[in-house]
Amino acid sequence: MGWAQTFRDRARTTLAAAESRNVPPPFTAGPELQDAGPPPVVVVNQRSSSEDLLPRGVRTAGAWAWRFILFVVAAYLMLRLIGLLRVVVIPVVVALLLAALFQPASAGLVRRGMNRSLSAGLILVAALLLVFGGLGLIIRTFIGQFDTLSAQVSEGIGEIQSWLSRSPLHITDAQLNEYVDRARETVTGNQDALTSGALSTATTLGEVVTGFFLVLFTLFFFLRDGGGIWSFLCRLLPREARVPTARSGHYAWHTLVSYVHATVLVAFVDAVGIGIGLALLRVPLALPLAALVFLGAFIPVVGATVTGAVAVLVALVANGPATAIAVLAIVIAVQQLEGHVLQPLIMGRAVALHPLAVILAIAAGVVAAGIVGGLIAVPLLAVLNTAIRYLVRHPGGEPTTDKEPPGTVESSGEPIASAPAPSAPAQASPTDPPPASSSVAADTPRLTT
Predict the structure, then answer these.
(1) pTM for the complete prediction?
(2) 138: in domain
C-alpha cells in the first residue's frame, strides 16, 4: 500500500537525521496517518550511570587518584632503571655539571676562532691538570704531616682518657682498655665480613675508574657538541612540542650554568675562610681539611656544616678543647657569612628556591641515591623550576621579554598568565637571539619544524 511505503521512507529519513545529530528522533505523521490513531510508543529502560550515582567530588578524586598512581609507578620504574644503569647515569650527570662549569670558557675560545674540538680538548686538559695538581698537593701535605698528626692524636687520646676519668662518668683506664679489647675481638670475629667488604670495595674501585674515563669522554663531547645533542633530542619530539622544549631547555641550561658557578664561588670562599683559620691555629692537615670543606660545600646547607664538624673533631683530637672551640667559632662565622651574604648575593641571582625546598630536595636525594643524590638534587630542582615556569608562562615557545630566565627571581605572587602569542609564525626557529645575560648563546639548539 502506498501510505505504508511513505511511512517507512519518512521513518528511515527521520532516524538517519536523528542518528547524525545524536538526539532522540521525533515522530511526525503524514496526512495519510492522521486518522490512523497514535503511533506505537517504545519504552527504553535507562539505568542511571555512575556519574549520576557518585558525587562530583568523589569522581574528581577518583580521576586524580588513578593518575597519581600511574605517576608514582612511572617514577618508581624510572628510579629502578636509573639504579640499574647507575654506572652510566652517574658519570653522565657529573659530566653535565662539569660541562655547565667549563662551557662558558669553551664557548669563549670558539668565539675567538678556535676549533670546537681543540677548545674542548684544551679545557679538558686544563681541568685535569687542576684536579690532579690539587690532589697531589693535598696528598703530599697529608704524607708530610702524618707523623706529627699521629703523635698529636696519641696525646689527644690520652687527654680524652684523663678527662673521662675525671668526669662525672668516672670511666677508668681499665674500662677503656676493656672497650678497646672488645672492639678488637669484634673485628677479629667478623673477618669474613671485612673480607667480603674489601672485595666490594675493589668492585667499587673498578666502577670509579670506569666512571672517571666515562666522565672524561662524555664531558669532551658535551663541550664540543652540546648544542647539536640537544637539537637532536628535541627533533625526536612531536612537531608542536619542539619549539617550547628547545627554548625551555635553553633557559634551564642558563640556570644550571649560573648555579654551578655560584656554588663554586661559595665553596671557594668557605674553604679559604676555614682553611686560613685552621692554618693560624696550627691545626694539622689544614690544607686537606680546607679541600674537604670545598667539596662538601657543593651540597648546600648540609655539606659545609658536616665538613666543618670534621675539622672541629681533628682540632679537638690534635690540639685540645681550646683549639677545637676556636675552630668551631670560625666555622660558625663562615657559615653566617655564607648564609646572610654569599647565598642571597650570589646564589640568589642564579636560582630562587625556598630554603625548605632545598632541604627537602637534599633529603630526598640522599635517601634515593646517597651522596650523589644529595649533590644533584638542588641543581635538578633548579633546572625543573626554570623549565616548568617557562612552559607555564610561554606554552607556545615565545622568548621571554626580560633579560633573566624564569625561575631566577622570586615570584611576585601574582597569578601566572600565558604570554600572548607572537606575531611571527609558530614555526619560527626557537633560536632567536637569547637574552644578553645568557652565557650559553653559542650552544642554543637550532631546529627546523
Answers:
(1) 0.66
(2) yes
Q: At what angle do helices 191-235 and 116-144 cross, to 10 degrees?
A: 160
Contacts of 31 (CB under 8 A, 6+ apart): none
> What is the per-residue pLDDT across 336-388, written as a single tens digit (0 to 9) for each?
887 777 766 666 666 667 778 878 888 888 887 777 787 888 888 888 888 88
Cell of 272: 679559604
Task: Write out the three cell numbers for 170.
Answer: 668516672
- 447, 228 Cβ separation under 8 angstroms: no
CA distance 417 to 196: 59
Using CA atoms, how far apart are residues 322 and 194, in angstroms rounded to an integer?
A: 37
Q: Whats the size of the chain, residue-wise?
A: 449
Parent domain of 309: 88-186+204-411+436-443
Taking only the tens place, the pLDDT of each residue in 187-228 is 555 555 544 544 454 457 777 788 889 999 999 999 998 888
Residue linked to cell 642554543 = 444
Per-block mean pLDDT, blocks of 10 residues, the chain (449 long): 68 70 51 52 51 78 91 89 84 90 90 90 90 81 71 66 66 66 61 49 69 90 90 89 89 88 87 89 84 82 79 81 88 81 67 77 81 83 88 81 55 37 37 38 42
**425, amino acid identity:** P
Q: How far apart are CA 330 and CA 275, in angstroms?
A: 10
Helix, strand, coil % (nearest 5) of the chain? 75, 0, 25
Residue 219 covered by a domain: yes
Query: Smallest Cα–Cα separation from 328: which of 266, 278, 267?
Result: 278
Domain count, the chain: 1
Q: Which residues contact 357 (CB under 8 A, 6 or more apart)?
A: 381
| Cα–Cα distance for residue pair 156/144, rounded to 1 Å | 20
With respect to residue 220, please indicate whether it lies within any of the assigned structural domains: yes
Q: 23 lies in a domain?
A: no
Return all residues near 404 (Cβ < 8 A) that are at least 6 apart: 435, 437
Q: CB of 409 within 8 A of CB of 352?
A: yes
Helices (H), 320-353: 321-337, 348-350
For residues 207, 211, 212 and 215, what is the CA-based torsion angle, rounded to 10 degrees?
180
432 neighbors 248 (Cβ within 8 angstroms): no
